[in-house]
Design a protein that fits this description.
The protein is mostly beta strands and about 170 residues long. Strands 1, 2, 3, 4 and 5 form a five-stranded antiparallel β-sheet that branches. It has a four-stranded antiparallel β-sheet with strand order 6-7-8-9, with no helix packed on it. It starts with a strand and ends with a strand.
């Protein structure tokens, strides 16, 4: 598997050019659905499953109930996706920006090589791997905060309801 996300009642898994879901309550496995090739990240916005492909520089929406995939949206090396309130955010690894999808907001400049994101209910957090920083963006206004140095090469983020967890190459901290 290349990516996992939970959408509604199902766990979704991305493979080489398909996504497939599994209902953990019933153990039912649903048929694979063909999507943009090489899916690298997924996010669920409450209605649609969003699928990123770094190799194709694209993000695609999928209706998880019908399995119908929409047209691909062009992006630049979409490394990570997160659904935050009324926006889908894409971390564009090649041009050091975040991109808001399906809204009037456009791209937001962030640190060097954004590779991971998490949402805490108010702010979108971005791990910038090449300048070793963590940065927050207010989801409702798009206001970007100054990056904070957090340690060498932050790689992944998770919010547990109280704390933001940061994984570095070789360590995890809260």
């Amino acid at each position: 598997p290349q990516s996992l996300t939970f959408a509604g009642q199902r766990l979704w898994v991305a493979f080489f050019d398909t996504v497939q879901s599994f209902d953990p309550m019933t153990s039912q496995i649903y048929p694979a659905i063909e999507v943009v090739s090489d899916p690298s990240s997924m996010a669920f916005d409450g209605t649609r499953l969003w699928i990123a492909s770094r190799s194709k520089n694209a993000v695609q929406a999928l209706d998880p109930l019908t399995g119908v995939a929409g047209p691909a949206i062009v992006s630049r090396d979409p490394a990570a996706l997160v659904a935050a309130r009324d926006r889908l955010w894409i971390a564009n690894g090649r041009d050091d920006t975040l991109q808001a999808i399906d809204l009037t907001a456009g791209r937001v400049s962030v640190g060097k090589r954004p590779v991971a994101m998490a949402f805490d209910g108010t702010r979108l957090w971005v791990a910038n791997q090449d300048d070793d920083t963590l940065q927050s963006i207010y989801a409702t206004t798009g206001r970007v905060e100054t990056p904070t140095w957090v340690g060498l090469q932050p790689k992944a983020l998770a919010f547990d309801g109280a704390r933001l967890w940061i994984a570095f190459f070789g360590a995890v901290e809260a």
